[in-house]
Amino acid sequence: MLNKKHRIGVMFAIVIAAAVVLATGCTFFEDKEFSGSASGNKTAKNEITVSIYDRGIIPASEGSYADNRWTNWINRNGPVNVKFIPIMRSESRQNLMKLFASGSAPDIINEYNTAIRNSLYEQNQLLPLDNVLKFMPEYEKLITQYPQLKNAGTKSDGKLYEIGKLNEANPLHAFFIRTDWLKKLGLEVPKTQEEFFQVAKAFTELDPDGDGKDDTYGTNLSYYSENALNEMFGDSSSITQFSWGIKDGKIVRLWENELASLTFKKSLYDNHIIDKNYMYDSSGSKAKQDFLNGKIGIYINPSVNWTEFTLSDLAILKKNVPGAEIAPLAYPKTSMGEFTGAINNPIQMTTVINANTKNPEAAAQYIDFMMKPKTSVTFLGDEGVHWTKNPNGCPSVLDPYKQKYEVSYNVDYQMFVTGINQKCGYIINKFNPEVPEQKTALDIYKSAQKLYLDPSRQSRLDGGRIYACISEQSECDTNGSAQGNKRSLCQSDHQRQ
C-alpha cells in the first residue's frame, strides 16, 4: 500500500509539474507572439462590430471593406478587435433597419443620413454617450473646444447621442464639362437650362471623341448625381423624399420645382442623352467609369473628394484620353432660377452607438483610437510612397494611382474624425503648386470655389440666398455664421454623402 501511495503521489506531482510547465509555456508564447503593451502584460481584446459603407470602389487586390490593409492595421494596433459590417451606401436605410429588426445591428453605426439616425433615436435604439465620454478623451476635448458639436449631437431629452466632426465648407456636388469637346464642336459653355440640354445632346450625337461610334453620353444620372441635377431647379426631393422650401416665410412643398426637374430629366432620358440603364447603376460606379474612359461630356460628381478627383481620377482620364480637358461648370440658370449645389456641412453628425452594445467602453475606446492624430497620419498612407510634404509642410499626393487604389477607399473608416483643426486639413493646403499636375488641380478647385460658393445664388433648400461668409479657413457655427475675424461660406443644410 505504501508503494502504491508513493506511486500515486509521484504521478500527482508529475501532473502538477506538467500543468505548470504547460501553463508557463502557453504564457510565454502568447506574450512573445502577441505582446505589444508597454508592460508586457497582454490581455485579450474586447470585440465590437462597426458598420462601414460599401461604395463598390475597393480594388479586388485590396480585399473587401471588411478585410483589407486598413482593417488589419486597426485590429493590430487598436485597443479592441473590430469586425466591420459592410453596408451598401445606396441601400443603407434598408440594410440597417433589417439588422436592427433581427437584433444583429453593429455596436457602432456610421451613417451620414440624419433621418436614419433620428429614426433610431425615436425607436430607443441609441445609447446615450454622456457616461462613456470619459473613454473618448479625444472627442471630449473637441466638444469642449467646439461646443456646437455637442449641441448638434444632443437630442430632445437633453442627452448626447451622436458623434460628429467639423468640416471645411467646400462644394460637395459639382458638374465638370469636357472643354476639349466644346472646342472640337465649336460650342460655348452652357449657362442656361436650354443650353445645357443642347450641349449635352451634341455630346451624345456628334461623336465628340472621334471614334466613329455611337458610344458617348451627354451627362450622367445615377446614384446621388440625380440630387445634384435636381439642385439646378431648387429641388431636394431625391434627398428628403419630398422637396420643401421657404416661401413668403412659410415652409411649403416645392411642387413646381419638383415638376421642373422631373420634366428635364425625362427629356434627357427620351433623347438618349443619359445611359438608359442608369437605374441599375446604384453606386454610380459605371457612370464614373464611363467618365474616366472619356465617354461622358458633362460629368455630375455627386460627392466630390477634391484631392482624389483632381489628382487621381483626372490622371486616369488623361491616361485613357491624353487630350482630355475638364473644367467646373456652374449650375445653369433654369426656369426656377439660379441655384448653387450642396455645400459640405461644417457641423456634421455621423456616428451613433447601439443601445444594445454589450461593451460601451470598448466602443468608445475604438472611436477614441481612430480620432488620435497618429491614426489619422497613418491613414494617409506611407510617406515617400503615397505622399510627401509640400511647401506648406502638408502631405501631398505623390503617386495618384497608388493613392487611388490603396488609400482613397479608406475614408469612411474615419467618418467621424475632424480634419480641419489644423492647417493641413484644408483642401487648398494639400496641393503642391510646384508640381504641374497639382497646380492644375489647385486651379480647378479654386475655380469651383468661385462658382459654387457664390452668395448671389439661391440654395436649394432655403429658397433664399446662401449664407455669405466666404474664405478658405474658418470655424463655423450651426447657423452658418463665422466666428471671430475669419469668414467662410457655411451652409449647415448639406452634408457629405
From TrEMBL:
Gene3D superfamilies: Periplasmic binding protein-like II. SUPFAM superfamilies: Periplasmic binding protein-like II. It holds the Pfam family SBP_bac_1. Residues 476-497 are annotated as: Disordered. InterPro entries: Bact_solute-bd_prot1, SBP. This is Extracellular solute-binding protein. It comes from Paenibacillus gyeongsangnamensis.
